[in-house]
Amino acid sequence: MKLYHVIWDTRAKESLKAVILYVKEESPTAAKKVRSEILKLTASLKKMPERFSTEPYLEHKGNEYRSVVKWSYKILYRVNENEVRILEIVHTSRNTTVVEDIE
Questions:
Q1: What are the two backbone dihedrals, phi and then psi, of residue 47, each rounded to the nearest 5 degrees?
Q2: Tens digits of residue pLDDT in 9-52
Q3: What DSSP character marks residue 59?
């Protein structure tokens, strides 16, 4: 089975920090769980990253752009030959222009 290298873009790292800080205001315990589950999910992308669907708002850029939703957070990523690049984490209620601006 092919293994991919998972890399986080700076933008995605900052978004994850913002999500954790927001959740932490209400519940530090929930914030730890959200962080842990998102990191576990993104780490799992090293195996079969294509198992999740292409991102509808980025289909015009090619089918290497994919996403997966965990709770209310959409994790956007791009699959290249040997790597999976985590591009952004957005709340599903946000305007789609945030997603459409992904490079």
A1: -115, 125
A2: 999 999 999 999 999 999 999 999 999 999 999 999 999 999 99
A3: G
What domains, with CATH codes, occur in the chain?
Answer: 5-100 (3.30.2310.20)
Cα–chain center distance at 48: 15
Q: Which residues pair with 65 in a beta bridge?
A: 78
Helix, strand, coil shares of the chain, percent, nearest 5, are 50, 30, 25
Please give the order of strands across the beta sheet that includes 5-8. Answer: 5-8, 83-91, 73-79, 65-70
The pairs formed by 48-56 with CB atoms below 8 angstroms and a separation of 24 or more are 48/1, 49/4, 49/77, 49/79, 49/84, 50/79, 55/99
Average pLDDT score over residue span 53-82? 93
Task: State the pTM of this model.
Answer: 0.91
